[in-house]
Amino acid sequence: QVQLVESGGGLVQAGGSLRLSCTASGRTFATWAMGWFRQGPGEERSFVAAINPSGELTNYANSVKGRFTISRDNVKNTVYLQMNSLKLQDTAIYYCAAKRGAGNFVYSASDFYDYWGQGTQVTVSS
Question: Residue 27 above 90 pLDDT?
Answer without folding.
Answer: no
